[in-house]
Specification:
Elements (H helix, E strand, L loop, with lengths): L1 E8 L11 E2 L5 E5 L6 H13 L7 H4 L6 E10 L2 E12 L2 E12 L4 E6 L2 H12 L3 H7 L1 E2 L12 H11 L3 H35 L2 H32 L7 H43 L1 H74 L2 H68 L1 H65 L14 H49 L3 H40 L5 H17 L3 H54 L4 H17 L3 H13 L3 H52 L2 H68 L4 H25 L4 E10 L2 E12 L2 E4 L5 H22 L6 E5 L7 H14 L5 E6 L2 H4 L5 E7 L3 E7 L2
Parallel strand pairs: 3-13, 3-14, 8-12, 12-13
Antiparallel strand pairs: 1-2, 1-4, 4-5, 5-6, 6-7, 9-10, 10-11, 14-15
C-alpha cells in the first residue's frame, strides 16, 4: 500500500479548510512541527480511514471540538490499482451516524466506482484487499514513538513472547488452552470414574463373604433338616399318647402367654410412669423459676419497643444525611461550573492579550521586514548561480555514494554471510557437542522402553488369564445354580414326606407303608447329601478361581500403574533419537560451514569483490575534483535564503496585524466585562439559592431527630442477652397448664400396675397347679410337650435361615451385576486415559516450546539478514547482529532469544551497548521486524513511517541514520520521518511542516517539492 492523497476535515485538531496532502511529489519526506500541533493526527487519519481506529477510542474523541461532522478521504495505490476510502461521521441528537465508502479507479470512465455498500462488508473488503489489519499495520509500517526498542530492551524470554505475538502465534496459544481444557475435563472424568470404580470394588470385595455365608446357611439348613426328621419320627410315636393331656397343655401354654402379656403391660406402664415423673420434674423446675422468667420477659418486651423507636430514628437520620450529601454535591457542582467559566474567560482574555501583543510586535518590525525582503532577492539570485553546478555535483555524488554503497554492500554481504556462518557454526557445534550425551540418553531410554514393553506383554497375559477365569467362574456359577435348584426340589419332597400324616405319597398319591416311606426318605437324604457335597466342591473351586482372579487384578493394577509413563517415555525416546540424528548431521554440516567461512574470510581480507564498481569510483572522484563545486558554500547560500524567507511571511503578517488590533481590543473588553460579572457571583455567593435554603432546612431536621447511637447499641446488646426470654416464658406457661394433668395420669398408671400384678400372682398360682398336674400325668406328656417346643423352634430357625439365605443370595447376585458395571467403568476409564494422553501431547505441541518455537526458529535467519543489511548501512559495515535461539546452561540446551552484536571490539551482548549504538541496533531490528511481519501477512511493505525520538544520536549517528533511511528507501515507495530536531529536518529535501493556528486549527505545507 502506497499513499497517494489525503484530505481531512474536522478530524482531531484539523478544521474545515485543510489542504490536500499529495504524496506523489516525493519518495522520502520529513514530517515536522511542534508537539501537539497535529503531526500524529495525519497518521491517525490514515489508520482511521482504512480501519476506523486511531488514538481516540470513540468518535467524540477524534471529532474536532465544536464540530458536528468529520470526514477523511484517503487515496492509495495497491498492486497497480488506485483505491479511495471515504470515512465520515456526523453527530446526531440520538448519538451519531457513520459511513464508509471503498472505491476503485476505473481508467475507462476516468472516475471511481464503489466496491461495497454495507459498512461491515466494506471494512472486510478493505482488509481483504490490503491483506493487513490495523494491528499488523501499526506493528509493521509504523515505527512508533517509544516502540523501536520494544523488542531489544526485553529479557530473552519476553523477546520470544513478543516475537510470538508479532508473528500472530496466539492461535496456537488458543489451541493450547483448548487442549488444556479438554485435558482438565478428562482428568475430572478419570477421577470420577476411579471414584465410582473404587466404590464398586469395595462392594465386590464382599462377594466372597456372601458366598461363605451362603455355604454356612446351606450347611445349617441341612443339619436342621436331619434334626427335624428325627424329631418328626419321634413325634409320630408319641402323638398317640397325648390326647388326654392336650386340654391341660393348651391351658398351661395359654397361662404362659397371658403372663407374658401382663408382664409386657406392667413394663410398658412402668416406662410410662417414669416418663410422666420426668415431665413432672421438668415442670416443677420451670415453676420454681416463675418470678425470674416473668421479669426477664417483661424486660425483653420493654427493650423491643425501645429498639423499634431507635431504629425508626436511625432510618430517618440516614435519609436526611443522604439528602444533605446530595445537596452539598449539587452546590459544589454549581460553584465548579462558575469556576470553570472563570478559568475559560481568563484563558480567553490571556489568549487575546497575547495575540494583541504579537500583532503590535509585528507592526513594530515594518522597517526591518522591508530590508529583509530586499536582501532575500539578492540571496535568491546568488543561489541561482550555484544551481547549475549543484545538479551535476549531485549526479556525480549520488553515483559515487551508490558505488560506495555497492562496494560496502558487497563487503557487508560477505561479512553478514560470514557472521551468519559463524553463528551457524556455533549453533552446529553446540548441537554436535551433545552427541555423546544424546547417545547415552537414547540408550537409557531404549532400555526403559524395552522394560515397559515387557510389562505390556505381561499385562496382556494377565488380562487374557483373567478373561479365561471369568468364563470358567460363570460356567461354575451356572452349574451351582442348577445344583441348588435340584437341592431345593429334593428338600421340598423331603418336607412333604416328613410333614404328611397320610399313608400315601404326597407326590404320586401311591399307598405307602412305614418301611417304604423310610426307604424313600433315606434315598432323598442320600441324594441331598450328594448334591450338597457337589455344590460345596463347585463353590470351593469358584472361591479358588476368584482368589486367583483377585491376585491377577492386583497384579494388573500394579503393571498398569507402572506403564503410566510408557507414552511419555516413547515420546522422549523419539525426541532423543531425533536430537541424536540432528547432532550427527550437525557435525557434518559444521565441517562444510568451516570451509565456506575460510573462503569468505580470504575474499574479505584480499578485497576480492566489486571490481567494476571500484574502477568507476576512481573515475567519478577525478571528475568531482575537477568540477570545483563547494557544497558548503551552496548550503550557506541556501541557508541564507531560508533564513530570509521568513520576511515574506512577516510581510503578510504585517498586513493581517493592522486589521486584527482593533478587533482584538474590542473582544478583550467584552471578555473582561463578563469575567468581572462571574467573579462577583462567586465572591458574593450569589448562586444556587434554592439549594442553599433546602440544605439549611435539612440540617435543622437532622438536629431535631435526636438519635443516640450509643443507647441504641446498648439496647440491641441487652436484647441479644435476653433472646431466650420468650422461649422460657412459653415453657413456664406449659408447666403451669400441664402439672396437674401429669399428676392425675400418674395416679391412674400406678393403679393399673397394681391390678396387673395382682392378676399375675393369680396366674402364677394356677400355672403351678397345672404344672404339678401335668407332671403327675406321666413322663410321656412332658416329653411330647418338650418335643413340640423343639420342633417349633427348629421351624422358626429354618424360616430365619431361609430368609437369611434369600437376602445373602440377593446381595451375591447384586455383586454379579456390579461386576458388569465395573467392567463398563474400566473400559470408560481406559478410553478417558487414552484421550488424556492425546491432549497432553497436543498441549505440549501447541505450547511455547512446540510448534511456536519451530516457527520462531524458522524466521530468525530472515530477521537477522534484514537487520544486518540495515545495520551495515548505519555503522558503515562495522557491526552486525546475531540472534541465538539456544543457550547451553548446566549441561542442558535452553530455548531463548539472546541478541549478540559483533563489531571491531568483538562480540558482546546487546545489554552492554547504550546510547546511540543501542539505538542503531533497535532501529535495524525494528525495521526488519516490520518487513518480516508485512511479508507474513501476505503483502509487501511499501510504506514506512518512523515516528521515534533521535535524541540519543550524536552528529555522526544522525548522519548515518539519514543515510540509512535514504538507503532503505530503495526498499520502500514512501518513507516519512517524524521529528522535531532541526539538524534532522534539514537533512531531508522534502518537509511537511505542521503548524497549529488559534483561528483555523492545524494545517501544513509541503516544502521542497
Amino acid at each position: 500500500m502506497v499513499p497517494v492523497r489525503l484530505h481531512l476535515r474536522n478530524f482531531m485538531s484539523y478544521g474545515e479548510n485543510v489542504p490536500v496532502l499529495d504524496f506523489t511529489g516525493f519518495r522520502v519526506a520529513c514530517l515536522s512541527g511542534r508537539n501537539g500541533h497535529g503531526k500524529s493526527a495525519l497518521l491517525d487519519a490514515i489508520t482511521w480511514a482504512l480501519w476506523g481506529r486511531a488514538r481516540g477510542s470513540t468518535y467524540e474523541e477524534i471529532l474536532r471540538v465544536g464540530a458536528v461532522e468529520m470526514q477523511v478521504t484517503f487515496e492509495f495505490e495497491l498492486e497497480g490499482n488506485l483505491y479511495r476510502v471515504i470515512r465520515a461521521y456526523r453527530r446526531t441528537g440520538r448519538g451519531g451516524l457513520s459511513s464508509l465508502e471503498f472505491q476503485i479507479f476505473d481508467p475507462k470512465s476516468g472516475g471511481y466506482r464503489p466496491l461495497s455498500s454495507q459498512v461491515r462488508r466494506t471494512q472486510e473488503e478493505i482488509i481483504k484487499r490490503l491483506r493487513m489489519d490495523y494491528e499488523t499495520f501499526i506493528n509493521s509500517a509504523f515505527v512508533l514513538q517509544g516502540r523501536a526498542d520494544e523488542f531489544t530492551r526485553k529479557t530473552p524470554k519476553e523477546r520470544k513472547e513478543l516475537l510470538a505475538r508479532i508473528l500472530g502465534l496466539s492461535r496456537y496459544e488458543e489451541l493450547e488452552e483448548l487442549a488444556k481444557k479438554h485435558l482438565r475435563e478428562r482428568e475430572t472424568e478419570i477421577a470420577k470414574l476411579e471414584a465410582q470404580l473404587g466404590g464398586l470394588e469395595e462392594e465386590l470385595a464382599r462377594k466372597e463373604d456372601y458366598e461363605r455365608q451362603l455355604q454356612e446357611v446351606s450347611s445349617e439348613l441341612g443339619a436342621l433338616a436331619r434334626r427335624m426328621e428325627e424329631l418328626g419320627l419321634e413325634r409320630e410315636r408319641l402323638e398317640r399318647m397325648k390326647e388326654g393331656l392336650e386340654e391341660k397343655r393348651r391351658r398351661y401354654e395359654g397361662i404362659g402367654e397371658e403372663k407374658r402379656r401382663l408382664e409386657e403391660h406392667i413394663r410398658e406402664v412402668s416406662e410410662r410412669i417414669s416418663a410422666q415423673e420426668g415431665r413432672k420434674g421438668d415442670y416443677e423446675r420451670v415453676l420454681a423459676r416463675r418470678e425470674e422468667i416473668s421479669e426477664a420477659f417483661s424486660r425483653y418486651e420493654d427493650l423491643r419497643r425501645e429498639e423499634r423507636i431507635w431504629t425508626e430514628k436511625l432510618r430517618t437520620l440516614r435519609d436526611l444525611e443522604a439528602r444533605r450529601g446530595e445537596l452539598e454535591r449539587k452546590l459544589g457542582e454549581e460553584r465548579h461550573v462558575l469556576e470553570r467559566r472563570v478559568e475559560a474567560l481568563s484563558g480567553r482574555r490571556r489568549e487575546l492579550e497575547a495575540r494583541l501583543r504579537e500583532a503590535q510586535e509585528v507592526l513594530s518590525k515594518e522597517v526591518e521586514v522591508e530590508e529583509g525582503c530586499r536582501r532575500l532577492e539578492e540571496a535568491k539570485r546568488e543561489a541561482g548561480e550555484w544551481e547549475g553546478r549543484r545538479a551535476r555535483y549531485e549526479e556525480l555524488e549520488a553515483e559515487r555514494q551508490e558505488l560506495m554503497r555497492r562496494i560496502e554492500r558487497a563487503r557487508s554481504e560477505l561479512s553478514v554471510q560470514l557472521g551468519n556462518l559463524e553463528g551457524r557454526m556455533r549453533e552446529l557445534k553446540k548441537r554436535a557437542d551433545m552427541e555423546l550425551a544424546l547417545r547415552k540418553e537414547v540408550a537409557e531410554l531404549e532400555e526403559e522402553v524395552r522394560k515397559l514393553e515387557e510389562l505390556e506383554r505381561e499385562r496382556e497375559e494377565v488380562r487374557n488369564r483373567g478373561t479365561q477365569l471369568k468364563l470358567r467362574i460363570e460356567a461354575l456359577r451356572k452349574k451351582a445354580e442348577e445344583v441348588e435348584g435340584r437341592i431345593s426340589e429334593v428338600k421340598e419332597k423331603l418336607s412333604l414326606l416328613q410333614t404328611s400324616k397320610e399313608a400315601r405319597c404326597p407326590l404320586c398319591r401311591a399307598e405307602l407303608d412305614l418301611a417304604r416311606k423310610r426307604n424313600i426318605l433315606t434315598e432323598y437324604a442320600t441324594e441331598l447329601k450328594g448334591l450338597q457335597e457337589e455344590l460345596s466342591r463347585t463353590r470351593r473351586e469358584m472361591r479358588e478361581m476368584d482368589e486367583e482372579r483377585r491376585r491377577l487384578r492386583a497384579r494388573y493394577r500394579e503393571v498398569d500403574e507402572a506403564l503410566r509413563p510408557a507414552q511419555e517415555k516413547r515420546g522422549r525416546l523419539a525426541e532423543a533419537r531425533a536430537a541424536y540424528g540432528e547432532a550427527i548431521r550437525a557435525r557434518g554440516e559444521l565441517e562444510r560451514a568451516r570451509g565456506e567461512a575460510e573462503s569468505l574470510k580470504r575474499k574479505v581480507e584480499a578485497e576480492d569483490f566489486a571490481h567494476a564498481e571500484r574502477r568507476r569510483l576512481a573515475e567519478v572522484e577525478v571528475e568531482l575534483k575537477d568540477l570545483g563545486y563547494d557544497p558548503e558554500g551552496y548550503r550557506r547560500v541556501l541557508k541564507r535564503v531560508e533564513e530570509l524567507t521568513r520576511y515574506e511571511l512577516e510581510r503578510e503578517r504585517l498586513e493581517a496585524a493592522r486589521t486584527q488590533v482593533k478587533d482584538l481590543r474590542e473582544e478583550i473588553e467584552r471578555v473582561s466585562s463578563e469575567l468581572s460579572e462571574v467573579e462577583g457571583k462567586l465572591e458574593g455567593g450569589r448562586y444556587a439559592e434554592e439549594i442553599r435554603e433546602e440544605l439549611k432546612r435539612v440540617l435543622g431536621r437532622i438536629e431535631e431527630v435526636g438519635y443516640d447511637g450509643t443507647r441504641h447499641a446498648q439496647v440491641q446488646e441487652e436484647l441479644d442477652r435476653l433472646r431466650e426470654a420468650p422461649v422460657e416464658r412459653e415453657r413456664l406457661l406449659q408447666a403451669e397448664a400441664g402439672i396437674e394433668e401429669v399428676k392425675e395420669v400418674l395416679r391412674g398408671l400406678r393403679e393399673s400396675v397394681e391390678q396387673a400384678q395382682e392378676h399375675l400372682r393369680e396366674l402364677e398360682e394356677e400355672e403351678g397347679r397345672l404344672a404339678r398336674e401335668l407332671e403327675e400325668c406321666g413322663e410321656v406328656e412332658e416329653r411330647l410337650s418338650q418335643l413340640g417346643r423343639k420342633l417349633e423352634d427348629l421351624r422358626e430357625r429354618r424360616e430365619g435361615l431361609l430368609g437369611r439365605e434369600g437376602a445373602v443370595r440377593a446381595q451375591y447376585e447384586r455383586c454379579m451385576r456390579m461386576e458388569e458395571e465395573a467392567k463398563r467403568l474400566r473400559e470408560e476409564l481406559a478410553r478417558a486415559q487414552r484421550e488424556r494422553t492425546i491432549y497432553e501431547t497436543l498441549q505440549r505441541a501447541f505450547g511455547k516450546d512446540g510448534i511456536q518455537a519451530l516457527i520462531i526458529e524458522g524466521v530468525l535467519p530472515e530477521l537477522e539478514q534484514e537487520a544486518n543489511e540495515i545495520l551495515r548501512r548505519l555503522t558503515e559495515g562495522r557491526a552486525y547482529v546475531r540472534i541465538e535461539p539456544l543457550r547451553e546452561k548446566g549441561g542442558k540446551v535452553k530455548e531463548t532469544l539472546d541478541i549478540k552484536i559483533s563489531d571491531e571490539l568483538g562480540t558482546r551482548d546487546y545489554e552492554m551497548f547504550s546510547g546511540g549504538e543501542a539505538f542503531r541496533v533497535d532501529f535495524a531490528l525494528r525495521v526488519a521486524l516490520s518487513k518480516l511481519l508485512a511479508k507474513r501477512a501476505g503483502t509487501r511493505l511499501r510504506t514506512l513511517v518512523v515516528d521515534e525520538g533521535f535524541g540519543t544520536q550524536d552528529s555522526e549517528g544522525l548522519e548515518l541514520l539519514v543515510e540509512a533511511i535514504n538507503a532503505i528507501s530503495e526498499d520502500f515507495d514512501k518513507i516519512l520521518v517524524v521529528t522535531h530536531l532541526e539538524q534532522l529536518r534539514n537533512a531531508f529535501p522534502v518537509r511537511i511542516e505542521v503548524e497549529k493556528r488559534p483561528d483555523v486549527g492545524s494545517t501544513f505545507q509541503v516544502i521542497g517539492v
